[in-house]
Amino acid sequence: MDISINCLGKKFDSPFVLASGPPTANADMIKRGFEAGWAGAVVKTLIREPVKNLQNRFASIKCGKTVIGFENIELLSEMSPEEWYRDIASLKKDFSDKIVIGSIMGDAKEQEQWIELALGCQDAGADMIELNFSCPHGYPEKGKGSAIGQNPEYSGLITGWLKSDKRIHVPVIPKLTAAVTDILHIGLAVSEKGADGISAINTIPSIMGFDLKTLAPRPDVNGWTTPGGYSGQGIRPIALRCVSDLTGDVKIPVMGCGGISSGYDGAEFLLAGAPVLQVCTAVMLEGYDIVSKMKDELAEFMSWHNFSSVSDFLGLGRRSIKQFSELDQSYSVKASIDPEKCTSCGKCHVSCRDGASGAISSHNNAYAVDRDTCCGCSLCYQVCPSGAITLR
Fold first, then answer.
1. Whether this model's pTM surpasses 0.90
2. Residue 1, pLDDT score
């Protein structure tokens, strides 16, 4: 089966691309990613101003030993644009079949900054240019990053600068933030100014919290912290919603990014209509080699439905998404407990009693559902750890 994808005139050997971030900090790292099997990479964002990243700039939330949420206060690339131009040229020389996407950021009012960086990446051999309108920390206080992506006027203005310059001929792709009331509003603004595609989303503004034993903030930078960017599995539903909103009304390709950590996650974004999938946090936690497993999982998903290519199901999930007012108000389900699978843990009983309709009773450590009382909300189904509950 064929997991390659064509997007914006380029063939990706799979949908999986390294997102701009720590795993794409220099050419040597990206080359190792390409050797592992990634179809492309978005380089760490170029900027003209000097960058010095803090130490102790990460924090995480764990479920047991597994990281399920991640925060960073890392800034952009510490390399100069000229160093990056050499690296991009080196990447394209050694991996001509891989897609290299330049990522740039400039000041909201400095047209020449954006043009210069875009031309530098293009002339070095970059296949596309991503515009960082979405970094949630450090730069918004300077009027950059998500301060641009939250403003349709500036987002459209900068996109228009690049698309109206006859020297720039590679696709221009703004990367949008989810930290807005309506991402579609921003997507339409850049689309109307000629954007060739959109990336969605970047990390989400957050404060990770405090160590309750020491009262130190997380991450702790000499006793202080600052809002950072939240990523990892927990933001996938937010990213999916944004991708779905955009692919429904913006008639240009949308690259999906946010919480993708498996091929199955990737399949959901493809169903939502995103042909290219950017991954960062999962690579930071598990390494470049995770891409082999992701490809296998995507192929397995395709085998379940006899899909022979990604185009067979790209955007297919959109037909299942409607406005709330359009949902079937007469639809009815009731919970049922299989006594053979039930472990008598009692989670369903407590959750239904204190969070739903109180329809689950207990007798001699056995649990049963009163169908007349059951409101069909599915809370018991969500909390059951043994798969004993079904909805009928």
1. yes
2. 87
